[in-house]
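User: quick one, sequence for these tokens?
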């Protein structure tokens, strides 16, 4: 065998080992996430709150209790989390919002939220209309030009 074939076989073995390792780690992470989701479901409760402010900020600047900061992995301490400051009853509290609903949370409005510990999992508006648009993104320049061209050609709208 020449050296080119040996190098190719070694690279192929390394790639196969990496794929097997990633599959194993993926299954392990999926089990861990399912357990966390079960815990969130077990401790959830509905609370009415006034949303004061929301922003993405590092965990250490969020005003969360020291016990929460100590329990988070060191890698996660530097990443920015969706933090919501809310008035629940007489006290103002910092909560962590789910990434999926963070953009839908209205500011300066009273809402009913499903909370599990310090984690907000869903929000429904209570008073007035919820003016925050849901999942609307501005259209790209290409899509705008494509729609104009199709309008001129007499073809239907593209979604």
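Assistant:
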């Amino acid at each position: 065998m020449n050296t080119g074939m040996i190098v190719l076989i070694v690279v192929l073995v390394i790639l196969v080992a990496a794929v097997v390792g990633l599959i194993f780690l993926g299954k392990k992470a999926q089990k861990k996430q399912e357990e966390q989701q079960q815990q969130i479901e077990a401790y959830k409760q509905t609370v009415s709150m006034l949303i004061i402010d929301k922003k993405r900020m590092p965990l250490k600047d969020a005003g969360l209790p020291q016990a929460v900061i100590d329990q988070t992995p060191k890698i996660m301490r530097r990443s920015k989390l969706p933090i919501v400051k809310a008035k629940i009853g007489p006290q103002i509290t910092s909560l962590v919002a789910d990434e999926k609903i963070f953009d839908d949370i209205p500011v300066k409005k009273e809402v009913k939220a499903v909370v599990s510990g310090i984690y907000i999992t869903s929000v429904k508006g209570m008073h007035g209309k919820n003016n925050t648009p849901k999942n609307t993104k501005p259209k790209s320049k290409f899509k705008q030009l494509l729609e104009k061209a199709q309008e001129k050609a007499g073809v239907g709208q593209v979604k």
